[in-house]
């Protein structure tokens, strides 16, 4: 079955996403334009790969780009409290402004762990740029580092969403918009 037959509802179309990503990139550009400290974008693999690619190409100042991978032991549609960094960054972030780029913040477990990890590597600030945010489900308050800022694309209702990098069982990352799966697709 073609992909669109798997999706029950579309929450954000490709056009919605493109418009919001452009706004975020322009906000980030404005916020860091006057800074002499190097800027690094760290994408959280795999989910952030499309968002990272779209946002960094619209940022109008020099920026290094890297990935980090965190595995949580949660199964299905919820993360566990204790993620493990299974693939670390290659770039030295000491003394730099880091922007962690995420697909979605849910409980906050994953990002809290990653922010602390980057702080321990000596980043002079850690900001978070998440495509989606589900504040209603937060279990851990996000603490940023230094002058770090919180950027988010959209507030997400409490549905399990897929597309634009986000998966269910590693599928649907290539859906170019964000939607909710038909219930029969979870079986
Ligand atoms: P947290 O640690 O904040 O609970 O969850 C973070 C990770 O869980 C996200 O980066 C994402 O990979 C996954 N996640 C949370 N909510 C959703 C969702 O609605 N859809 C998908 N596909 N993944 C989600
Ligand atoms: Mg993620
Ligand atoms: Mg996933």
UniProtKB/TrEMBL annotation:
It comes from Dioscorea zingiberensis. This is Hypoxanthine phosphoribosyltransferase. Signal peptide: none annotated. Residues 17-168 form the Phosphoribosyltransferase domain. Its EC number is 2.4.2.8. Its cofactor is Mg(2+). Keywords: Cytoplasm, Glycosyltransferase, Magnesium, Metal-binding, Nucleotide-binding, Purine salvage, Transferase. Belongs to the purine/pyrimidine phosphoribosyltransferase family. One of its GO terms (cellular component) is cytosol. The keyword Aminoacyl-tRNA synthetase does not apply. GO terms for biological process: GMP salvage; guanine salvage; hypoxanthine metabolic process; IMP salvage; purine ribonucleoside salvage. It is found in: Cytoplasm. One of its GO terms (molecular function) is magnesium ion binding.
